[in-house]
Amino acid sequence: MVRWKAKLDKLVIFFTREMGKLLAVAPGAMRIPNRFGGSMEPLNYGILRLYCSTSGRYYVKDFEIVNSFLGVRSSPERLSVALSYLFFLYRILPYEVPEVNLFDASFSFFKELEKGSEPEVLKAVAMIKALHFLGFLPDFRACSRCGRKLAGGAHIENPLSGPVCERCSLSDSLKLGGETIALIRASLDKPFGFFGRVRFSSRALNEVFSYLSAVSEKLLGGVEFEFSGSNIQA
Q: What span, in angstroms and rounded, lies between the C-alpha atoms of 229 and 105?
């Protein structure tokens, strides 16, 4: 009887503001129908109520949806971008470590994505902000080797180390142009709404996603960040 009940439960991963990434059991969520309805779906934002067993396992008491981001779900392109970002968070975040700034930035990302801003640009910005909050993004203001302020582009010899200037580059490395460096810097300083009003070239976005893929390879063994180039004005 206990075994059968377990088959009707669902393990759900939540990204919470107060406790970070959580793994919880939603009792009976595999039943048709069940008391959770469609609330246990990606992108749903709301109020989560949990209880903890004596063994330390979390169980979902209920989940009240506040925003399901229907505008994102209605667009295949925006939905793909949103799910790609969520998958990255799932891979990179440890369990039960609060990341308040990252949570707030992620919520802003989904709200701006729903408004209709260019999804490829927003994904790049969201990824850069996430790496910054998690402590994996190096300083893009100066050369990590000579300390001079970066003027124009830079070279990435190690994705987890700082960029180096043209003069200090020792190998055939990933080259980021001046516009790409400007995009990375703006991602750290500007809110998501800013990127609904500016344009970046296809070349800059290609370079950013090449950099993000290289970082992902080092950190996680690879998470795909493909830039389609659609709807982007060069």
A: 24
Per-residue pLDDT of 28-52, as tens digits, reads: 888 888 888 888 889 999 999 999 9
Instruction: For 182-194, write each residue's pLDDT tens digit.
Output: 999 999 999 999 9
Q: Which helix (H) or strand (E) holds 119?
A: helix 119-133
What's the confidence (pLDDT) of residue 222? 57
Strands across the sheet containing 20-26: 10-16, 20-26, 58-67, 45-52
- Crossing angle of helices 76-92 and 202-220, rounded to 10°: 30
d(CA 180, CA 213): 15
How would you class 73 by CB atoms within 10 Å of its CB: exposed for 0-12, middle for 13-18, buried for 19 or more? middle
Six token digits for residue 164 = 């180096």
Cβ-based neighbour number of residue 65 at 10 Å: 13
Within 13 Å, how many C-alpha atoms sit on residue 141's CB side?
3
Going from the N-terminus, what domains does the chain have, and what CATH number goes with each?
A: 2-67 (2.40.50.140), 72-220 (1.20.1440.120)
